[in-house]
Structure formats: structure tokens, C-alpha cells
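Objective 1b: paired records.
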Amino acid sequence: MHSADHTAGHVPEPTTLSTLQQDLLRKAELESAMIAAPQDQRLRGAYFEELMRFASVRTGLSHVLLPELGHPVSLRCGTADLIALLRVFRDQFYDVPQRATPQRILVLGAHVGYGAVYLAHRFPGAQILCVEPNAAAYRVLCMNTLPFRQIQTMCLAAWHSPTRLGVLARNLGDWGLQLHDQLPDAERTFPARSVSEILRMAGWEQVDMVVCDILGAEAAILADPGQRWLQTLDTLLVAVQEPRLPVFIEQARAGLDPAFYGYTSKGDLQVIERHVPFRAVILPQAREMPLINSGPGLFPIALQDPPATPWGFFVFDGDCCQLHPNAPGERPARAIFPRTLDGHSRFTATYFHAGRPSPAIVFSFIVAREDGSEVFRSSRALASGERQDIALDLPQLTGRHHLILQTEMAPEAPQNFSAWAQFLSPRIG
């Protein structure tokens, strides 16, 4: 007879969640709720309150998931990252109307990249260059901007000339870092370059928008009012607190003539904007969109009657796909992309019949309303190994539509063996 290891009838205590597990669960529940109801401001407010509580009692790397981003951004708990995040995504610090759509944006003092991520989503066609001198913040900046092909980063400080800077003051960790060149050589560990040199390093001849949050160093970058980049600038957004504001305004007016620029403010953000944009396209502008997107976020796609084989449909090279046609006489294979359009009127792609040898394939691009009625259709038959660059003028499209890529075998085709039908970089613009 074996001795009993526990009292008969005893029910084990239920396993309790740790504080961290409870906090993570609460955070995940709020994230799921926000994704289900992205316009619910009450939920959004509760999420930011939970983030403040969550990040204030621990250190380490966590993430934030906001519905408008569709992908997480990194947050270092116990740092000023949270303050920076709240300013951009809760308080909408950079939500300033623009007269023109910027094509090139320079972010000075990019910190961990929240402002750059916001601008990348707002202006998806713009190239963005982030400059951040602090190595710890720069590492997180690289993580947060890595998914964006249009964002470059440099671990540098901006100044009026090439030099090295040291830490004059540290108000809010690496977000409140104040750098200066009037310090002993041993303390000057941060490399600095002028804005003109930074643009040259990036291969940019000019810049449309400069966003600047560098705690006093804006005086250095505006020290020479004759700099060429100032002459072609459309918009300057600078975070300036009250004690430094008079000096900033005086310097800015020397380089950005009030006869050509308007001066306004939004809290601590000073907004200087050219009355008539230098070269940018006047808003509104239908931005070019890839049908297949490997960038941040999730983009819907529906497949209709693709061949039930591994090569029936797949995405490659980030923005290309293969859509193998069915056997002759069977239903066409379709990839359907639901999109909300805003004056889009052009489709571009390269059609490629990559199979050798193979019968001819008919490639089609179709635009349909949500009720299924067709707005536009264009078809091309390609022989084995043939490639065609396609540029189609469409009726101006606004609202929700289905953009359809379709393949089928040509009428005379005996079979679909080796019929590798590929759409390369299909885009709507």
C-alpha cells in the first residue's frame, strides 16, 4: 500500500498570473479592442493610460500597437520614449495641414523614430532621412524604421559646421539631450555635420520639409541664412520652448523671409511654411500605391480560383506575384485587391510570361465596383518568354474598388504546363 501524497479530496490551488502576465494580458486586450474599433477614442485613451502605468513600473524593451500603424513600434520602458510616443500619436503633435505634399523630409533629432513613422504613414511617397546622435536612441530608431524602405538613418548631430559635440545638459534622458561644441575635447564624443553636408551625404540636392527637435541646436543650423537648403525649403517644423523662441524667430526670419513664408504655431511647435511651394505638387494628390505591399501593416487580398498547387499563387521580391492560369477552358485565376481610391487614374506593371516552353497566356487587369460591376478591363496575350511594360490610363477612381489581376490560357492553348504568369510591381497611381 502506497502512502498518500496529499489529503483525499484536496483541490490544488489555481495557478495565478504574475503581475507582468496580468499587465501584458490587459495591454493585449486593449490592443485587440482598438483594432476592432479603431475610431473609439475612449479605448484609445484607456490604452495610453495603460501604457503609462505599464512603462512606469519596469524597464526593458516592449512594444506598442496602434491600429493606424498596423505593425508594432518599440518602446523602452522607464525612459522618455513614452512621452515622445504620446506627443506624436496621442496629442497629434505633427498633425499640421500642409499646402504641398513633401517628396523629401529631413528629421533632425529623430530620437527613436515615432515622428518619422508618423510622417511615413502620412506621406507614403516621401523619402525620409532621420538624423539622431545618441547611440542608444539610434538603435531603437533603426528597429522602428527598418520596415520602411523610404526611410534612411544617420547617427549624427546637426550643427552649423563639421565638428564634435558634448553633452551640455540631459533633461529627459536621451530625448532631452542638449549638445554643444563649447566643451573640453575629451567630452565631445558626438560627430556633427551641417545640414548641407547631411543632405550631400544622402545624395539629396534639396529638401522640402525639415522637422527639427534638437533642444537649442536649431540656432546652430540656422546660423547661416544663406544656406542653399533654406532657399528651396517648403516647410520647417521646429519644437521650440518659450525661453528660446525670440532668438529662434529672429534667426528664422533672416533665412526664411516672411514675405514668402507664413509663421504660425501649434503649442511648442513652430510652423514656417512657404506661401507658394517651391516645387512640390499642390495637394490633393492621388498617391501611388503598390497592389502588393511588403511594408508595415497588413493589406487585404482575395484569391479566386487559383490552381491548387504550390505555384498557383505566391508573392516574391516584395511587390511581385505569380498567378498561374488554370487549364484551358477552366475559370480564370484571379488575385483581388480591395482598395480605397482617391482620384487614382493610372495602372502600371510589367507582365512576364516566364515559362519556357509554354502556350500563350492572357494577362488582364480589371477594375470593379464592390457590387461586382466592371469599370475597366484591359487584356494582353503574351507568348512564352515575353515581357511587356504596361501603363494604362483609367477613369478617375474614387472610393472603394476591387483591383483584379487575372490570368487564363490563350484560346488556342492545348494545356497550361509551365505557364508561369508573373505580375511585376503592379501599382495604381
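Objective 1b, second protein:
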Amino acid sequence: MQFVILTGMSGAGKSLVLKFLEDIDFFCVDNLPPSLIPKFIELCKMPEVGIEKVALGIDIRGGKLFNDLLSCVSEVQNENHKISILFLDASDETLLKRFKESRRNHPLARGERLINGIMRERELLRDVKRRADYIIDTSHILTRQLKEKINDIFLENKIFESLMITVLSFGFKYGIPSDSDLVFDVRFIPNPFYISDLKTLTGNDIKVRDYVMEWEESREFVEKLEDMISFLIPNYIKEGKNQLVISIGCTGGKHRSVTLANELYRSLQKNGHSVIINHRDIDKDAKR
């Protein structure tokens, strides 16, 4: 029997993930008091019940009851029941944006600033996150990609890599992305913007890609970047990092950065890493 505890930051997508788990035949219960976990597991294991997969959504909505989570999980594990913890996280900036857009109240920020509730919750969840078997940062992940991630872990039984990599192209004239871990400036490469046939295209178009990659500097940059990232990834994982944002910038974020971000994305994907790509500024010039 498969038991999963789904927890994490409010606003990180737990309700959505519970639905994804239901779609792959998990029996899901939300907001169960942790003290009931051992009894609930025993109930599910009764032959006449016939439940094979269970997911329990447990978070700080339970108030003081939530404090019993780790001790209850340890109790269950001591009785030789296998139970996994899936922790959903997101950056403070992302959580603030989601709460403001949904106009929902944070459970720990009643009558005070939203960021205070987020910071308090992050502190309360620190030990739970350390004990988690799976950590997924949903800051930059699309709904479709999140569903694929859940299916990979709990349906396809693929090896889970806790480090979620985002390759992000951007334009320096619009500012460096604030959540960048690594920033690379590719403005040294000849600019397709000054080629009349390429000016209105983007790095997603084959003509621009071919132009950018025909330069030896571009090919050497990609080779050296891939080598460095390959060295960094296992060390970041060892350190416990679960989100890596690699930002590649050119002047407007439309041609060179998009092309080179795509090259890195394909390389990381080919090597089996959990990676998503985002072209932040690709359409901005067109809207001006």
C-alpha cells in the first residue's frame, strides 16, 4: 500500500496536486489531523476496505494539531508502514502574487501583512521540509508540467530529482530577474536584431537559431556552459537546493538569449534533469 503525506506552503498548489493524485487512483483526504494518521492507515489496510493508494493533505490549517505531524509519521514508520512526504514550495514573491490574485487570506496572516504570515509559515514548516522525500518548487512550473511531475513520481516510478531547474531568457533593458541564481550575459554575440530578415523573428525561429549558432563564440559558450552546469547540479543537490534559476540575457530578450536558453534547455532535458524554460521578455518589443 502506498501512503503519501502532501504538505507545504499555503498557495504552493496542494489542492491542485490532490486532484492530480485522485486522477491516478489515490484515495485523497484533505486537512486530516495528524494524530489520526495511524488509525486511518490501519483502517485503509483492512482487507474489506480495498484501498491501495492513499494521499493525505496536511498543513498549517490544522493549527496546533499540525505540530504532531512529524511524531505521527515517525510512529507509523516505526510500525513498518511506508509513508512518503511530498512538500510543495514556492518563492515568497510567487506566493504573494498568488494570494493577491486570488484575494484569499493567508491562514497565518489574519489582520496583518501577508508577507508576515508567509515568513511565519516557512519557519513552522522548516523541519517538515527537511524530512520530505520529495520537494517540488512550483514558482515557475506550469499546471501541465506539475501534473507530469506528479505522474512521473507516483505513476511511472521514475527517479526523482529534487532540483527543479528553470532556464530563463531575458532582456537586460527590462532588468535582471530578481530570483536568478546564475546570470549569463550573451550580448557579446552578434545581434540578429540588425539583420532585416531576422529583426521581427525570435530565437524560437529556425532562421534566428541558425544565425546565432553559426558563430564559434556561441557554440563555445554553450559547450562551456553545459560543462559548468553539469558540475554544479550534483553539488547543488548535495547541498539541499531544490530550485535553480539560470538566467541568460541579451539586450531585448528576443533573439540571442532565447536561442541559447533553448540550447541549454534541450541539453538538460536530454540528460534527464527536471527542467522548464521561460522566455520572459520575448514578446515585449512587439507590444511597445
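Residues 43 and 49 are 8 Å apart (CA to CA). The radius of gyration is 22 Å.
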